[in-house]
Design a protein that fits this description.
Strand order of the largest sheet: 3-2-4-1-12-11-13
Largest sheet: 7 strands, antiparallel
Helix content: 25-40%
Structural class: alpha+beta
Distance between the termini: 17 Å
Number of strands: 25
Strand content: 25-35%
Number of helices: 16
Low-confidence stretches: none
Shape: globular
Length: 467
């Protein structure tokens, strides 16, 4: 998905920028970047993060940086920030985006005899394309609205100028931006968890399509938010950091409610519940509290040297990292009936490895309880599932085995209690090799989040689409 952080202060803000951007590291996989503006120039640094962590790559850069305003990004894809010189003056830009019609907009620009100077994996750099769309209009605000009009998918962005920082949230609010405030400074972040240790308090949740302009003295709204919102529900289930709030709703508390909802529908008799670290843990605690059974750690996570499991770009390496960083506790596993909570089942490969380990260590029964419904549709709006093949999804693969094709009766397969839904779940259960498998109901997930269904993007589960 990616995440960003920006700040502007009456004093030097480089340390805040460095640590604030780092607090978004769990959102991205590939590159990190910083841009700082001082009295003389823009300073910029971009590094690959696939084999190391943000702080280790940037600690030498910040010794050279100084300035009262800056923006930073953790990116899934392209190198950022981009520094642009245009009729708006010089500015730096970062974005969290997935542009579904990237090729269409690239072809449009080339027909207009424009060019692109930066490419990402052989394709157009999305942030450069976004900057080009902004520069088609006479003001930055109008330019951002042009981005909203032209792009299909999602796009939130920060723009650093000599006058201040612009923050613009995706027109349907799929990705969040939170404004923070402390004495003499403001910050904007994809994650509110970036604020606490830097002394910021949440000032405002920026609305869908809203544009605000920030200086060290304050902020002003340059465009009112749209009424419609489709914020990604996966933020609360998986992506979001436990201490973060989106739309005023805390991630950790939401996960407790998700786990409790799973427990209410569950009649399995188990000795204890466990969670797949990290995001499955809070769901398991919620399950434990509701069911009044013990919570135990069948796995402990070894964090000193192993990176995040989705950090490497190679799927085989991701699977290896996911396996190696989880250490089973044999004395807790052997002879036990275990309910195992996870945030989701995407492909099922990592969970299958976890199940094999539990079986090898003598688990008597294994009951898998994912905190969200079955994933049937690939994400079109963020980079949650980057595969172009729906058959990479465990749900679609099961449908293919049952129907001989992957795209029939999808509404029935997405509806709990139907004959086809039950057949799909049984196929996945057999593949995983577990005693039982019960997914979260979508209505329960929506209730656990606490926003109306129409304000959430639930496309991954029910196929609802809206650009």
């Amino acid at each position: 998905m990616g995440g960003f952080f920006g700040c502007i202060s009456k004093s030097d803000c480089v340390n805040d920028l460095y640590y604030g951007t780092d607090y978004n590291s769990h959102l991205g996989t590939k590159r990190g970047g910083l841009a700082v503006l001082n009295s003389k120039e823009f300073q910029r640094a971009i590094h690959n993060l696939e084999n190391s962590y943000f702080r280790t790559k940037f600690e030498s850069d910040i010794q050279k940086f100084h300035g009262n305003s800056g923006i930073g990004v953790i990116s899934d894809t392209e190198p950022q920030p981009i520094i642009i010189n245009s009729h708006h003056g010089q500015f730096a830009i970062v974005s969290v985006s997935k542009i579904v019609n990237l090729q269409e907009l690239t072809d449009r620009a080339l027909k207009q005899l424009r060019h692109f100077s930066e490419t990402s994996s052989g394709t157009t750099n999305p942030s450069e394309l976004i900057a080009m769309l902004i520069n088609e209009e006479e003001s930055l605000e109008k330019g951002i609205e042009n981005v909203y009009d032209k792009i299909k998918g999602s796009c939130s962005l920060l723009i650093l100028t000599k006058e201040g920082v612009y923050a613009a949230r995706d027109k349907l609010g799929r990705t969040p931006i939170i404004l923070g405030k402390k004495e003499g400074a403001f910050a904007v972040s994809s994650e509110s968890s970036a604020f606490a240790n830097l002394g910021y308090e949440i000032e405002k949740y920026i609305g869908p399509g809203e544009i605000i302009f920030i200086t060290a003295d304050g902020y002003e709204q340059r465009k009112k938010p749209f009424d419609e919102m489709q914020v990604c529900a996966f933020l609360w289930v998986y992506y979001g950091y436990p201490s973060s709030n989106y739309e005023g709703i805390n991630v950790e508390e939401c996960r407790y409610r998700c786990g409790a909802a799973l427990a209410k529908r569950d009649d399995a008799v188990v000795d204890y519940v466990s969670g797949v670290p990290d995001s499955g843990v809070a769901h398991a605690i919620g399950y434990s509290n509701e069911k009044q059974i013990p919570y135990k750690r069948a796995y402990v996570k070894y964090t000193p040297t192993w990176p995040r499991s989705f950090m490497p770009q190679n799927q085989e390496m991701r699977n290896l990292v996911a396996k190696m960083k989880l250490l089973p506790v044999k004395s807790i596993i052997n002879g036990q009936k275990i309910a195992l909570c996870d945030d989701s089942i995407v492909r099922g490969t990592q969970l299958q490895d976890n199940v094999q380990i539990l079986n090898a260590y003598g688990a008597k029964e294994i009951h898998i309880r994912p905190a969200c419904p079955t994933l049937i549709f690939p994400c079109e709006y963020l980079n949650f599932s980057t595969s172009r093949s729906t058959l990479d999804l465990a749900g679609r693969k099961a449908i293919m085995e049952i129907e001989g094709t992957e795209d029939k009766y999808l509404e029935e397969y997405a509806t709990p209690g139907t004959e086809r839904y039950n057949a799909m779940i049984e196929k996945i259960r057999e593949k995983l090799g577990v005693t039982s498998l019960r997914y979260q109901h979508l209505d329960d997930l929506v209730e656990a989040i606490g926003l109306p269904k129409e304000k959430l993007c639930t496309h991954c589960w029910d196929g609802s689409s809206h650009y």
